[in-house]
Amino acid sequence: MKIKDITAILEQMAPLAYAEDFDNVGLLTGSADTEVTGILVCHDALEDVISEAIAKGCNLVVCFHPILFSGLKKITGKNYVERAVIKAIKNDVALYAVHTALDNHRQGVNKIFADALGLDNTKILVPKEGFIRKLVTYTVPENHLKLRNALFDAGAGSIGNYENCSFNSRGTGTYQGNEFSDPQIGQQGEFMESEEIKVEVTFEKHLENKILKALFENHIYEEVAYEVYTLTNSHQNIGLGMVGSLPEALNEADFLQLVKDKMQAGGIRHSGFIGKKIQKVAVLGGSGSFAIKNAIAAGADAYLTADLKYHQFYEAEGKLLLADIGHYESERYTADYMAQFIAGKTTAITVLVAETDTNPVKYF
User: Fold this and answer.
1) What distance lies between CA 301 and its chain's CA centroid?
2) How does it assemble (predicted)?
3) Triad 243, 234, 22: Cα angle to 5°
């Protein structure tokens, strides 16, 4: 298998279109046409991880965090990023990062986090906005089913647990072609009125080119009338964080002990106890201070995330227990999930989880 075959699998696990605009995901180094000798999955692709990959005969490292996050103007080995990149390139080791593409996936980082705590009835905490678009087009009844099915096949009409969703309404269309026209129905210069069917479907924005290709290839009109809108609807199945419920309510101390045990946290920084039982819990792996208000709005009794600053603990406002369990700890099981997903899609390539500890934070 070539790297491009593996990246196709990784796109199933974490579509790159799901990533945040600021992120740097996908193939960072290496050629997509290189034959894969083995895959090492890790949290951070540091120099020691590249060495481990080389020692184990793996020429593709799939990492959660992108080692190349912002641009490099020089590659001289003066810092940990440059040293890792140099070692990877010199030894023909390709690097591929998933980061927020997996953060935003319904089954990704935050579902893994929630499952580790035993949360039930989970849903997205911060649904992705501006991601849903709507296509409206018009065609004659004879072309209606062929066109609509082609749009479905291209990915349009999927809403949550439902596929092939559309709205179809009948009406009267009018047109009059000029001397350069070649109308499918009627003649040049003739004013036409004909029965038409209006087809409306929604789709995720990264599918737009594919959807429009299907539209143009399967529509019988010389000039295809269509409109594409960006909807303000939030995408309920794509987004950051997750909120769910524990099977039983716990007091605050017992809850934090549960979190410490399940997530193997070296220590937990938290806001003051407010004497409230904890059952509804919001989680967001990695840096999640921006979603404190979302957790409060969701009615969470506790919010677990990482990288909180001193003043951000005040934002709990006595409304919930706010806890920083550590960045690495909040994403602890992500590499295992990634490796299992890849291995489940191919038996031809060895898939290993890195043994190198890349957590830069230690506890005394």
Assistant:
1) 26
2) Homohexamer.
3) 85
Q: CA-based angle 234:240:246, to the nearest 5?
A: 105
Strand partners, 29: 95
Residue in the structure block whose two tokens are 């699998």: 9
Is the separation of the CB atoms in 30 and 64 below 8 Å?
no
Q: Is 208 within any annotated ligand binding site?
A: no
Q: What is the pLDDT of residues 229-261, one digit of tens each?
A: 999 999 989 999 999 999 999 999 999 999 999
Tokens, residue 18: 């799901």
**Annotated binding residue at 190?**
no
For residue range 16-46, what is the model confidence (pLDDT) as tens digits?
999 999 999 999 999 999 999 999 999 999 9
Residue labelled with tokens 């196709």:
8
Domains of the chain: 3-101+333-353 (3.40.1390.30), 109-126+240-325 (3.40.1390.30), 132-233 (3.30.70.120)
142-187 pLDDT tens trace: 999 999 999 999 999 998 889 999 999 999 999 898 989 888 788 8
pLDDT at 47 exceeding the cut of 90? yes
DSSP characters over 21-78: TT---EEEES-TTSBP--EEEEEE--HHHHHHHHHTT--EEEEEE-S--S--S--SS-
Distance CA 243, CA 1 (A): 38
Q: Are 126 and 291 in contact (CB under 8 A)?
A: yes
Residue 151 in 3-state DSSP? helix
Instruction: Tell me if 301 is assigned to a ligand binding site.
Output: no
